[in-house]
């Protein structure tokens, strides 16, 4: 085995740094050094000094980075492509709007349930095997989705939709949990930078999925979008099987658990922040289109307005990740993101208690762009926040720990993504969009207060413990 292929055997987590070209270190010469940096409360802590550079990475890390980026783009394109045409097709088969909404939302529900489970068993199953298996399951379910229009209507069609969506969610949960754990292990000093950069691929996939799905549907009918993206996902799985380096640490006893991880106040604070971000983004899905009806816009323009938040999020994620890693602004970025996201949702409504704020199209678009920026600001550092919380608990620096952190992160995100559309639609139906958006703002502002109290009352705060 070449030395560039064993650099993960002795990887430290957040506190110390390996040789400048960490991917080229031999296991027989694991040189490390640290340099002091001032933490958020003014204390000194050891951190890495070199900046993340893709060109400086070794072959192993480049392959991992490219594969995960490719899979993120393909998978999230596949997950989002059914939005333009599936609701109408499902209605023809006897599914009500409520049932269609449940078919969509059950995807996030099952990820919420299963992510911690996959995280706990990650090294027992194998990180690479979990990653590839998840991709292959997602691709296979997409192919099956393409023949659901042949099912008998009503109960049989609805049951098969739920079944396919549930199994697809299990595959997605497995691949996402393994991918985040692999990132944490392979890039221990640049977790947030790499995570933020790879989020760009996710955001682009979410943006292009609906137009690609609509175009393929127009060109070849119901099955073509699913068969096309399913084949691409299966191809990604085969490529990952051939080129993805192994990740397993071998069989051993792991003493940690999700229950132990949530004993960390910082981990809980980070999960609350993740929940707020995904809740507010999911809130827009069932509510924003009806809110914009007053402007009499075409479907094309409404679709473009929907792209504002994810586009800004995807474009700014790499920069936000870099700032979090380079400046160690984990807590500060969470607070800034939570506070200004809350302000953005107050003006997005606009809030009924601010009658002087006009309801105009330009203000709505600007606020959606701010939502994309500031939700990214609070979401991007949270994975590192949970990692630091695990370190503060004394959990060992291993793929097991990374798997648990990844599972908790994905579970928190999916809980918000599941609750956001459900509660958002309910609030809009009963109180109107202004109060519904204000509820998101209140959630953000209350969470800001919680993070501020934690920052100034906790002894450890957001600080990385010494190694």
TrEMBL record:
Principal subcellular localization: membrane
Cellular component GO terms, alphabetical: membrane
Claim: Aminoacyl-tRNA synthetase is one of the keywords in the record: no
Subcellular location: Membrane
Membrane topology: Multi-pass membrane protein
TM segment ranges: 63-86, 98-122, 129-148, 224-244, 265-284, 304-323, 335-353, 359-390, 402-427, 433-454
Major facilitator superfamily (MFS) profile domain span: 266-467
Chain positions covered by the region annotation Disordered: 1-45
Gene3D superfamilies the UniProt entry points to: MFS general substrate transporter like domains
GO MF, any single term: chloride transmembrane transporter activity
Alphabetical UniProt keywords: Membrane, Transmembrane, Transmembrane helix, Transport
Compositional bias of kind Polar residues: 25-42
Name this polypeptide is given: Major facilitator superfamily (MFS) profile domain-containing protein
């Amino acid at each position: 085995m070449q030395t560039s292929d064993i650099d993960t055997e002795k990887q430290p987590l957040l506190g110390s740094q390996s040789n400048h070209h960490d991917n080229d270190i031999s296991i027989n010469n694991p040189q490390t050094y640290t340099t002091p940096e001032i933490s958020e409360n003014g204390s000194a802590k050891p951190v890495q000094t070199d900046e993340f550079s893709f060109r400086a990475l070794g072959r192993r890390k480049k392959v991992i980075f490219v594969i995960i980026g490719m899979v993120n783009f393909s998978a999230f394109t596949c997950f989002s492509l059914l939005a333009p045409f599936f609701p109408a097709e499902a209605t023809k088969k006897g599914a009500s709007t409520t049932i269609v909404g449940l078919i969509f939302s059950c995807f996030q529900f099952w990820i919420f349930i299963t992510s911690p489970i996959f995280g706990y068993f990650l090294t027992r199953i194998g990180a690479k095997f979990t990653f590839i298996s998840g991709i292959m399951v997602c691709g296979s379910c997409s192919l099956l989705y393409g023949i659901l229009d042949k099912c008998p209507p009503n109960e049989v069609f609805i049951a098969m939709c739920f079944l396919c969506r549930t199994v697809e969610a299990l595959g997605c949960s497995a691949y996402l949990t393994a991918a985040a754990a692999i990132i944490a292990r392979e890039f221990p000093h640049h977790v947030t930078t790499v995570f933020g950069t790879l989020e760009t691929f996710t955001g682009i996939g979410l943006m292009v999925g609906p137009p690609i799905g609509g175009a393929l549907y127009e060109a070849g009918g119901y099955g073509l979008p699913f068969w096309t993206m399913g084949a691409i996902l299966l191809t990604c799985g085969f490529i990952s099987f051939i080129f993805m380096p192994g990740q397993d640490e071998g069989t051993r006893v792991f003493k940690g658990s999700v229950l132990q991880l949530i004993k960390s106040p910082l981990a809980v604070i980070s999960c609350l922040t993740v929940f707020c971000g995904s809740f507010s983004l999911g809130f827009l899905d069932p509510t924003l289109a009806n809110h914009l009806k007053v402007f009499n816009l075409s479907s094309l323009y409404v679709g473009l307005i929907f792209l504002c938040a994810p586009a800004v999020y995807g474009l700014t994620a790499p920069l936000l990740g870099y700032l979090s890693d380079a400046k160690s602004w984990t807590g500060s970025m969470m607070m800034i993101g939570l506070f200004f996201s809350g302000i953005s949702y107050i003006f997005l409504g606009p809030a009924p208690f601010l009658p002087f704020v006009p309801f105009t199209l330009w203000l709505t678009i600007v606020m959606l762009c701010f939502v994309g920026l500031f939700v990214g600001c609070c979401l991007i550092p949270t994975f590192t926040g949970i990692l630091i919380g695990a370190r503060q608990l004394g959990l060992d620096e291993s793929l097991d720990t990374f798997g648990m952190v990844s599972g908790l992160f994905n579970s928190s995100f999916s809980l918000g993504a599941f609750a956001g559309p459900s509660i958002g639609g309910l609030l809009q139906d009963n109180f109107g969009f202004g109060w519904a958006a204000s509820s998101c703002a209140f959630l953000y502002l209350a969470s800001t207060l919680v993070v501020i109290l934690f920052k100034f009352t906790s002894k450890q705060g957001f600080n990385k413990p010494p190694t």
